[in-house]
Amino acid sequence: MNIKSKQNIFRSVMAAVAVATAACGAEIHAAPQDEPSDSVVSIVAHINASGHVSIDQPEALTERLSRRLQPGEDAGGEMPESTQNEASAAKSATAVRAGYRVQVFDDNNPRTSRSAAASYKSRIETAFPAYRAYVSFNSPYWRVKVGDFKSRAEAESAMADIRRTFPGLKAYIRIVRDRINIYD
User: Fold this and answer.
1) Using a CB cutoff of 8 Å and minimum separation of 24, what contacts does 128-131 make?
2) DSSP assignment, residue 49?
3) Contact 104, 173 (CB under 8 A)
4) Percent of the chain beyond pLDDT 90?
5) Cβ–Cβ under 8 Å, residues 145 and 178
6) What is the pLDDT of residues 95-109, one digit of tens each?
7) 113-149: per-residue pLDDT in tens?
8) Burial code of 94-133, b = ≥16 C-beta within 10 A, e = fewer?
9) 51, 103, 123, 146: which one has the fewest Cβ atoms less than 10 Å from its Cβ?
């Protein structure tokens, strides 16, 4: 790798560090330079000459950087509801394979569909504790799916039970192919 490539890489890294530190209120202090001609070259020379570089950052940033993200969690510490449900279900599942679920709700209204999906999920889980319910978001749709059925016949039986219990959901209820969790 030639010196120009190294300088370009270093410039990119330094720009990223500057943006990240500015965004979180951190400051970078470096010892004074003897060669002010080219700042990037002088910084590289300073670091290579075993100079002292200290980074002062807020304690909150240190905590945030040291905390490990959970699978599916974004940098803001939030985990989408669909990922929370799938992650909690996957913890005890022994395998995942193709199968069937009963979809009981789908909507794309940005104001109400998320809370409606959570409401339907809790209503289904209360009425049918034997079935697991899953909320998923595939933009722009929020969906609630019920069960982990290996065969279509099992899913049809569950669908009939759900239709009897919740006649108001009749327009939404249908069987869908999905990746299901297998429990032993």
Assistant:
1) 128/158, 128/161, 128/162, 128/165, 131/158
2) T
3) yes
4) 41
5) yes
6) 888 999 999 999 999
7) 999 999 999 999 999 999 999 999 998 999 999 999 9
8) eeeeebbbbbbbbbeeeeebbeebeebbebbeeebeebbb
9) 51
